[in-house]
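Hi V.,

Quick status before I head out on leave. The structure for the redesign project is tokenized and pasted below; the design run finished overnight.
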């Protein structure tokens, strides 16, 4: 289903007030020329640390207050950059992910051993410079360990006052329910955009329970695959990326896209989608470009 864009904010976990467009920082690594494309290594500390620090501070000035990272991004350097750049900045929500190991620049392997997850929460706390992490996702569900044990390990951190809320990444609706039998789940972060709607069922499921759905790679798709995208953008005098984000915001009041960018100009363009109301006709045309279509 598609909805009118009724609000620009969301209460994450019921107590964290966030704007509905955040900032994904996965590509805040390596050298600038080595960040684009699916093969970007996300392996080493960024070579332009001062520029990225400035951008993160400017993002808060522009109104962004939800920032997303992971312990696997640049082997923890992503968390360190975010923690140091936003040290002392109030009213920001930091989300990280644990449960993936990086034996080399090309490999991402789920690891859900409960003791490993507990250790990674401790390391994330140190790198982020926080006493409490606002939101910790299980980065990937490891089939080698029961889901209840993986979620249980993160729940221990909640009970110890080290983590405020828990989330899952790349999870099905059934896995969300299974995790929820162990602990409250505040957010689900899955790949989702105008052309990849394989998680439609999770979008609906999380909306019904008031759980945040956080689309990652919301703009990583071939715009030519959505012919009406350029048409609707022209009608609004906007960029196609702004319309793609507006479509996600209309998809449900619980959607919190986290587009990544290292350009303050692009970041401000992304935020402008919060003020864009798409008409029923425009939503129908955008929706019709994808099969099977989502109900309107």
């Amino acid at each position: 289903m598609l909805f009118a864009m009724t609000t620009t904010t969301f209460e994450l976990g019921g107590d964290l007030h966030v704007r509905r467009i955040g900032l994904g920082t996965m590509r805040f690594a390596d050298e600038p020329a080595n960040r684009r494309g699916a093969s970007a290594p996300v392996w080493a500390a960024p070579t332009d640390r001062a520029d990225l620090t400035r951008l993160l501070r400017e993002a808060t000035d522009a109104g962004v207050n939800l920032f997303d990272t992971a312990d696997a991004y640049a082997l923890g350097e992503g968390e360190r950059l975010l923690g140091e750049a936003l040290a002392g900045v109030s009213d920001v929500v930091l989300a990280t992910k644990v449960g993936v190991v990086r034996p080399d620049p090309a490999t991402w392997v789920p690891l859900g051993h409960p003791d490993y997850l507990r250790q990674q929460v401790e390391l994330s706390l140190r790198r982020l410079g926080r006493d409490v992490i606002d939101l910790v996702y299980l980065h990937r569900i490891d089939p080698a360990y029961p889901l209840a044990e993986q979620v249980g390990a993160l729940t221990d951190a909640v009970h110890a006052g080290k983590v405020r809320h828990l989330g899952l990444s790349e999870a099905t609706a059934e896995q969300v329910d299974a995790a929820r039998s162990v602990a409250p789940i505040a957010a689900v972060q899955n790949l989702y955009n105008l052309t990849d709607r394989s998680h439609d069922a999770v979008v609906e499921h999380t909306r019904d329970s008031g759980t945040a759905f956080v689309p990652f790679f919301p703009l990583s798709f071939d715009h030519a695959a959505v012919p009406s995208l350029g048409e609707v953008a022209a009608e609004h005098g906007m960029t196609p990326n702004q319309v793609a984000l507006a479509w996600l915001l209309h998809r449900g009041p619980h959607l919190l896209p986290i587009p990544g960018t290292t350009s303050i100009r692009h970041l401000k363009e992304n935020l402008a989608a919060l003020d864009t109301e798409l008409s029923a006709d425009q939503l129908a045309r955008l929706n019709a470009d994808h099969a099977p279509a989502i109900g309107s």
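Above is the designed sequence. The chain has one domain: 9-288.

G. will cover questions while I'm gone.

Best,
W.
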